[in-house]
Amino acid sequence: MDDPYTPKKRPFKQKISPLRYKTPTTESWDGLDISNQGIKNISSYLFTLTFIKHLYINNNSLSSIPPSISLLKNLIVLDISRNYLRSLPNEIFLLNNLRELHASDNMISSIPLQIGSLYQLQRLNLNNNPLIEPYNTLYLESENSLLSFCRENNTVYPIPSPREWIEYESCCGLSITVGSYNILCPSYATSTFYKYVPSWILSWENRRDSILQQIIEYNVDILCIQEMDANSYNEYFNPNLCSSVVGGGVGGVGGGVSSSLETSKETNKEQYKEQYKETSKEHYNHYNKTYNSLFYPKSRYRSMDNKNKGNVDGCAIFYNKNLFSCLESKCVEFNTTVLSDKRFYEKGDILNRNVNKDNIGVITILEVKRGGNAGRGGGSRDSSRDSNRIDSSSNIKDNIRDTKDYANTNIRDTTNTKDYIKDTKDTYVVVANVHLCWDPEYTDVKLFQSILIIEELEILVQKYKNKGKVCIFLCGDFNSLKNTNVYKMICTGRIDNSSGVGYDSRVDSKIDNRIDSNNTTYNILNNQSNNISNTDTNNNNQPNITNTFNGFDYGPYNNGFTHNLLLSDTHENTLNDATCYTPGFKGVIDYIFYGGEVKVNGVLTGVDEEYFSKVVGLPSVHLPSDHVFIGGKYVIRE
């Protein structure tokens, strides 16, 4: 029997703090203070904590900072003051979120010029360091003066690996190459938006030369360019690409010349550019070009005064005049379509969301030349088709009256047409070049614009498919990732109204011509041929508005949309890194979709990931736009 006066012993239970063995997460902390610890070397484990935003390693015994510091991409504050540092790592410029860098009371004598790319840096503390000239004078003047000097004088840039054409297999048939390139309009390439880029790299004179170099190097048969402004088309690209010879050695920037403190800023840049000219001069002096082209500016062109019209950008298509004849072309102005298409009358959401977005798409019909017509001064081209065009030799500023008139028709055929063209009969290539709305908050607008260009393509394909083979290329800057409705709609031929997610109906035997059994989804050809509408404006039924258009009323498309083009992505499995790269964004948003009587037979490899890891963003000295050139090789089926 237990003694009631003797209390029971309670079993011992060790108390363990629930946080003691908890793995640190970004939710629990985002900073690290290891100051005043007498640390001489930094553990590599530190650089795995990529989520930290504040790092204090001041008042230690560090003699160097490892280059791996660049892995801490989220750092906002870095304090390395009161150590024994003699230099800063060159890779520190990759910390593009850094706002404060404290490196006072060290033994630093020189500054890596790459530090000028820290465009968000607001505080740079280098007090009590034995800085040599000109760093000392510039730092005493202001922190911004030092950063600006470093940025403008830096000519130490990584060189990307050469990009190559990869062919899949040997195929019979006519082979053609297609490219797409957003060249970054000079009006948009300002130091306000691209603070990390030196002014001499951002300069349009330098960038346009480098862009021309890439175009000539890749030498595709059909080239779609976005953000081409009217002045650049008229005064530079059209004359250089559509004349017989590009002469004189086109200047540019590139290569890899190291800078020195004794060399002035201007001399430094001139040496850098001169080295590039010498290495590329021979290539340009003997280059024959066989392009014709057409160009349409955005709709705002018509409302601008003569002084500013030339700065309006648009879309251009260059094509090999030895291989193709242009039969017709048109500009699809999305905001104009909203106002003129009766399907969108009284649709307030469509009007409000789209009327101020002046993005465009350009479509052209190219006919593959037959051997009997090619190389004989104009082929079978009907001059009546040129009634709405302006000759490229005339002054665009004096002649352009309307966006639809802005195209080049100076057709100059040569006699070096390849023999295989003789066997090509009645083959039409429908090319669309599009630049969709950029704003990520307007995904409904992007989808709507892509639907409009698809509808125009379907009408033209229907027109020509009974005349011969039809090949389709839809190229451009879609400002949409692969997981978006825009991409899914184009590749699958359908956008589902219940989930906003497309699926590949090509593998579904229950789907006939991509229209469901209830005929509730909208298809432009079906609507025209049967004169039916999927929305009744006279009844009181509410439209089935789903997340497909972010809850906005898009009239005939509320129940979904289908098309019959059977388009595929050229780089579906090969280009997964980036076609656009800035400090705030990196992803694939440029595409070349193909369909009809053509199959892909090769691709141009992307920019290597190692290069992207060594630059803050584009444009750079080697890549003159914030987008990269993409290309594919195709074979027209026999």
Give a verbal description of the structure.
- The chain is an alpha/beta fold.
- The protein folds into 3 domains: 31-153, Ribonuclease Inhibitor (Leucine-rich repeat, LRR (right-handed beta-alpha superhelix)), CATH 3.80.10; 165-493 and 563-636, Deoxyribonuclease I, Chain A (4-Layer Sandwich); 494-562, no CATH class.
- The protein is built from 14 helices and 22 strands.
- A 7-stranded mixed sheet has the order 6-21-22-7-8-10-9, with helices on one face.
- β13, α11 and β14 (469-477) form a beta-alpha-beta unit.
- It is elongated and about 80 Å long.
- Mean pLDDT is 81; it is low at 9-22, 244-265, 279-283, 372-424, 499-519 and 528-543.
Low-confidence stretches: 9-22, 244-265, 279-283, 372-424, 499-519, 528-543
User: Please, what is the average pLDDT?
Assistant: 81
Q: What's the β-strand tally?
A: 22
Q: Do you know the CATH topology of the largest domain?
A: Deoxyribonuclease I, Chain A
Task: Report the top-level CATH class of the largest domain.
Answer: Alpha Beta
Query: What is the CATH H-level superfamily of the largest domain?
Result: Endonuclease/exonuclease/phosphatase
State the secondary-structure class.
alpha/beta
Helix content: 10-25%
User: Per the principal axes of the C-alpha atoms, what is the gross shape?
Assistant: elongated
Region (Disordered): 373-396
Subcellular location: Cytoplasm; Nucleus
Catalytic activity: Exonucleolytic cleavage of poly(A) to 5'-AMP
InterPro entries: CCR4/nocturin_mRNA_transcr, Endo/exonu/phosph_ase_sf, Endo/exonuclease/phosphatase, Leu-rich_rpt, Leu-rich_rpt_4, Leu-rich_rpt_typical-subtyp, LRR_dom_sf
